[in-house]
UniProtKB/TrEMBL annotation:
Coiled coil: none annotated. Residues 4-110 form the Rieske domain. It comes from Thiolapillus brandeum. Pfam families: Rieske. Keywords: 2Fe-2S, Iron, Iron-sulfur, Metal-binding. It comes from the Bacteria. This is Rieske 2Fe-2S family protein. The lineage of its organism: Bacteria, Pseudomonadati, Pseudomonadota, Gammaproteobacteria, Chromatiales. Gene3D superfamilies: Rieske [2Fe-2S] iron-sulphur domain. One of its GO terms (molecular function) is 2 iron, 2 sulfur cluster binding.
Length: 112
């Protein structure tokens, strides 16, 4: 697996989620959600398991109003940020597709 730089860790605050597009060496553009919660960093493909559309309704607007879950703007499904598991909505029991991620020398890298 190759590490593709997404951003620097300081670009993503605690309890924050941002959208990124990265292009790995194979050329397939990936639309990602990168989340920082409780000192950990998680990455998911930015598409709802129910419809396949992107989750956010505006750039970088992924969390529900309470800030506890990632939320699909189209139908309100709620996903746990730490594992992408859907706890409520039409895709309850499904999960966002996780993308391996690591932090190396202050940079967030997705492993593709």
């Amino acid at each position: 697996m190759i590490g593709v730089r997404v951003c620097i860790l300081d670009d993503l605050q605690e309890k924050d989620a941002r959208g990124f597009r990265v292009t790995p060496p194979d050329g397939e553009v990936l639309s990602l959600i990168v989340v920082r919660k409780d000192g950990e960093v998680y990455a998911y493909r930015n598409h709802c398991p129910h419809t396949g559309i992107n989750l956010e309704w505006q750039p970088d607007q992924f969390f529900d109003p309470g800030g506890g879950f990632l939320q699909c703007a189209t139908h309100g499904a709620l996903f746990r940020p730490e594992d992408g598991y859907c706890v409520r909505g039409p895709c309850a029991g499904d999960s966002l597709e996780a993308v391996p991620v690591r932090v190396d020398n202050g940079e967030i890298l997705v492993l593709v």
